[in-house]
Structures are given as C-alpha cells and as structure tokens.
C-alpha cells in the first residue's frame, strides 16, 4: 500500500466522512467502554502530574480527561480539523504533528500515547519508527501506550452478516487480512495494517521496548456494545469486569475492537 495515498485518504476520512469527536461519546455504548478502559489502563501506571504526549490524539477526548486529572498534556495530530477542535478544550496544548517525526527532545515526557498511528501505517518499519520515536521522547522509567486494531476484529466486521463477501473460494482480500493484516481494499476506513497481539509485542520489542504487555481494551463485549446506543449500568460494569479479568490472555485478547500494547521505557 502506498503510504502517501493512504495519508490522503486519512485526511479525507476524518474531514469529510467520520466525526471522530463523537466516537468516544454518544455514538454507541462501545465508546464509553473504550474510553473508561483506556483511562483505567493509563491511570494505573502513570504518576501524578505526569507530562504526557498524546500522539494522534484526535479531537482531544483522552487528553482533556488526563488534563482534568492534573497532568500536563501535549496533543499532536495530522488532521488540522482535529487540532482545531482539540484546542477548544483550552486545558492542554494541541498542535499539528506526525508520529513518524516528533519535534520534541529526548526524554521530554513521562508517558506517550499512540492511539491511532499504528493502524493507519502500512509498512512495518514505519510503525517501528513511530514506536522508536515514542521511546526516544519518553524518559527512562516512563511509559508507552500503543493501540492497534486486531485483524480478527476487522475480519468479523467485514464478514459477519455480509454473505456477499463470502464467495467460494474464500475471497483473497480476506485471506490476506487474516494472514498478514492487510486491510481489504473495499472498506471505507483508511487502515494501513491490522495486528495480532503477538505481532504488536514483536514490533514493540523491535523498537527497543521488550517485556511489553498486550491488553484488550473493550474485549469481546465491545462488538455487541458497538450496535447499541446505550446500555444500563449493570451491562456496562459487566463488560468492564470481563475485560479486566480476561483481556490479557493470548488469543482471547484479540477478540476486541482494539488492543493496547503497554511498555516501560528503559534507557
């Protein structure tokens, strides 16, 4: 996949086709589950008043929540409209930037978030470059949090309930998705690559971040909640409880809308 063409698709998708500011809000019950789980995984590890770089932070939903908790947050995003919206929060710095080439000095942050860049980049070496940049700008003892979309989640979304894609022999683009993580050319989402949990850990290790962990963010419940506008509190808490107990298990963790790699930086 040609990355410049993919970058252009990303700009068009987030400007004209998809409202990122709604994704973690009222679009579906999955958004609340994702938001709370991400904040939980971060909050359990970082110290008070941490300096945080949110790379690919979109419209600032996570940045705003972290800033409200007293952290010093800088958000960068490649989509100008996202940056403009993020700046309206007024509680953190938001600027245009690219995960592959961070302008910040070495060891400038206590934690770096990569929630978006890795699944929008096709080439493995470019994804590793993003992770190396995240490590570079993190202090020793700091944290890198990196989200990806599991290829099994993408396969489910693109096949279940859609018999038109299940021709025989099995469509080559779906075989490529399962074998290599290549996004199908027919989908609107500008995906560059979809991971397995093991592959995410391998890329973190290749970037100098060994001994990382991989955790499901939503778990298998996320697929169901994606289809519901709201759920009662008991269902939401049950979904959180299940992913907390099973989201670290190999194989099971891949049955989720998103995975998070978590690495402690050692220099």
Automatic annotation (TrEMBL):
S-adenosyl-L-methionine as UniProt keyword: yes
Primary gene name: COQ3_6
Keywords: Methyltransferase, S-adenosyl-L-methionine, Transferase, Ubiquinone
Keyword Transferase recorded: yes
EC numbers on record: 2.1.1.222
Top-rank lineage group of the source organism: Bacteria
Biological process, per Gene Ontology: methylation
Cross-referenced InterPro entries: Methyltransf_11 (IPR013216), SAM-dependent_MTases_sf (IPR029063)
Enzyme kind, highest EC tier: transferase
Molecular function via GO: 2-polyprenyl-6-hydroxyphenol methylase activity; S-adenosylmethionine-dependent methyltransferase activity
Segments forming domain Methyltransferase type: 53-145
A Pfam family: Methyltransf_11
Listed name of the protein: Ubiquinone biosynthesis O-methyltransferase, mitochondrial
């Amino acid at each position: 996949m040609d990355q410049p063409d993919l970058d252009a698709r990303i700009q068009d998708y987030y400007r004209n086709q998809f409202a990122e500011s709604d994704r973690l809000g009222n679009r579906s019950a999955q958004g609340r589950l994702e938001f709370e789980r991400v904040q939980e995984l971060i909050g359990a590890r970082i110290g008070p008043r941490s300096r945080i770089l949110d790379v690919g932070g979109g419209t600032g939903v996570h940045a705003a929540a972290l800033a409200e908790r007293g952290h010093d947050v800088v958000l960068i995003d490649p989509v100008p409209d996202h940056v403009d919206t993020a700046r309206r929060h007024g509680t953190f710095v938001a600027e245009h930037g690219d995960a592959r080439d961070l302008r910040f000095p070495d060891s400038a942050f206590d934690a770096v978030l990569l929630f978006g860049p890795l699944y929008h980049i096709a080439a493995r070496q470019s994804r590793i470059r993003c992770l190396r940049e995240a490590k570079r700008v993190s202090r020793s003892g700091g944290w890198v949090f990196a989200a990806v979309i599991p290829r099994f989640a993408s396969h489910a979304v693109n096949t279940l309930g859609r018999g038109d894609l299940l021709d025989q022999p099995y469509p080559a683009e779906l075989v490529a998705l399962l074998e290599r993580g290549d996004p199908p050319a027919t989908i609107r989402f500008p995906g560059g690559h979809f991971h397995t949990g093991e592959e995410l850990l391998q890329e973190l290790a290749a970037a100098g971040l060994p001994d990382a962990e991989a955790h499901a963010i939503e778990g298998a419940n996320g697929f169901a909640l994606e289809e519901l506008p709201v759920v009662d509190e008991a269902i939401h808490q049950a979904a959180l409880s299940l992913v907390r107990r099973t989201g670290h298990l190999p194989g099971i963790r891949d049955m989720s809308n998103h995975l998070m790699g978590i690495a402690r930086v050692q220099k």
